[in-house]
Amino acid sequence: MTEPVFRLENLHKSYKREGREDLEVLKGIHLEVGEKSFLTIVGKSGSGKSTILQLMAAFDKPTSGEIWFRSQNLSVLSDVELSTYRNRSIGFIFQFHHLLPEFTSLENILLPGLIRQEEKRQVLENRAASLLNLVGLSDRADHKPSQLSGGEQQRVAIARALMNQPEVLFADEPTGNLDSGNSELIFSLLAKIHSEYETTLVVVTHNLELARMGKTMLEIRDGMFAEGSN
Ligand SMILES: Nc1ncnc2c1ncn2[C@@H]1O[C@H](COP(=O)(O)OP(=O)(O)OP(=O)(O)O)[C@@H](O)[C@H]1O
Ligand SMILES: [Mg+2]
After folding, report:
1. Mean pLDDT, 10 residues at a time, over the chain (230 residues)?
2. List of residues 6+ apart from 200 with CB closer than 8 A
3. Which ligand places an atom closest to the C-alpha of 47?
4. Domains of the chain from N-terminus onward
5. Of the candidates 139, 167, 123, which has an alpha carbon nearest to the alpha carbon of residue 155?
6. Ligand 2 center to residue 162 CA distance, Å?
7. How far is the CA of 46 from the centre of ligand 1 (A)?
8. Whether this model's pTM surpasses 0.90
9. DSSP 125-147
10. What burial letters (b/e) apply to 5-20, b meaning 16+ CB within 10 Å?
């Protein structure tokens, strides 16, 4: 069997609270995410879905337990190594697009490549243009985020997350802000990315119907993955 992309071992996450006992959100999560998975995570509001994603993307650290990305234990990496991991190995799509308002669609997509500083500008620009084409927005290249619809903003954010050709793409409620038509479009786009680029996807959503578009669905309940969810 091939090595999993991610392995979460007995992961706990508690939040400290002033004058009150800690809030224990994750209570011993075990998870293996195999190569080329399309995993969706569902659960009630407050169940810890964003928390898991933020730990896997190394935006935050677990209270205890381990997260392995291939042969790397994320908890022993330095801050510099973690930045490299975030810039190269993963892409992240947020509920709200987090595009930079003063830059055009094309420039927003280009930025992670410029930060990485490894390829020629022309190569990066060509890739950014082809990603814009992938998300169906070639004719919006020079629009700033305020000149795009909500669905279009989210599609630009998806293209940006793909700029450095990540192995894993995380999305936290990527359709939380959109109507049902746009939500389906975003999920179809994720499915297309999954099949064309073989990117491993880990997607959090409230929407059960959309979650079923994934290959594996897990429900988080009481700080653990619920029995029988798959
Ligand atoms: N920094 C923090 N400090 C204290 N408590 C926090 C913090 N971040 C999150 N929480 C709490 O942890 C719990 C899990 O939060 P999380 O954001 O992971 O939920 P979620 O499943 O993503 O919910 P939603 O579907 O509403 O986005 C919530 O009850 C929240 O109030
Ligand atoms: Mg959340």
Report:
1. 89 94 96 95 94 97 97 95 94 91 97 92 96 95 96 95 95 90 91 93 91 93 79
2. 5, 33, 35, 36, 37, 38, 39, 167, 168, 169
3. 1
4. 6-205 (3.40.50.300)
5. 139
6. 22
7. 5
8. yes
9. HHHHHHHHHHTT-GGGTT--GGG
10. bbbbbebebbeeeeee
